[in-house]
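Problem: given the chain below (172 residues), write out its structure.
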Amino acid sequence: MSILKRGLAGEPVKILQAKLGVSADGQFGPATEEALKAYQKQHALSVDGIAGPDTFAALGLPELILLTEGSKGESVKKLQAALGLAADGAFGPATAKAVKEFQEKNGLEADGMAGPVTLSKIQAFAGVFSADAVAKSQAAPGTVAADAKPTEAGAAAAPKKSIWQTITSFFS
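Solution.
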């Protein structure tokens, strides 16, 4: 699942930091974690210091939303309902299959993950995923090598050209 937490680094971390008003160095350390926890507390989110789809939505950062197997929460429920599934809020194999089928029917890369490109085509998310948000979700040219593979930490199986492919761990 695509989350940001302490120990990760990359472009999505910089975007999160800028939104939280902390130094945008791209490394998710203690200051970012504390600012995130404060935001989560103020906005009645789960106060865990981990930024996932629901936190990104609350922050107004749709470009960072990437729903994959293991994702949980209101964003997943909304996706499941839009796809005609039982909306339990847990993105599992059935949700991945339904997303893949939706992608195939709509001429999208059928990878079973729902990021800004896919979500922008789903009526329930209309207005949230603008062309600008979709563009921001893509890594800048030259940021990601053509054969780059996403790291295990927070970006399992991210699609090619995704901003999530810039994620790395900066300490163990």
